[in-house]
Design a protein that fits this description.
Blueprint lengths: L1 H5 L4 H27 L12 H13 L11 H7 L4 H5 L3 H14 L7
Amino acid sequence: VRMGHKYGWSEQAYVAAAGRLQAISAELDSRLAEQQRRGSDYLVGSSVTAADFYWANMAGLIKPLPHKDNPMPDYMRDTYESGDADTLACLTPRLEAHRDRMYERHIALPLVF
């Protein structure tokens, strides 16, 4: 309860969260599509930025990297991976590919636990 209060949890915020995640994901997907039309694999400009790292890590909370790249224990994977179809749909193929590229190019793989 204390942590929820600290971060602004409320029933109203809970109800709005799914729509907010969908809107943010749609915006990121659109931005990445435009960037790719310009020849960039990154969310902002022509090189990696904090936004790319933030998204890659956030995407891991929706769907973790495959076991070969992220050998977390199964009980942890079950906790992290979203079982909600609407949430999983927010990770579009373009956004998932961006997450994977970020880890392949800029974050060491496999992850070590």
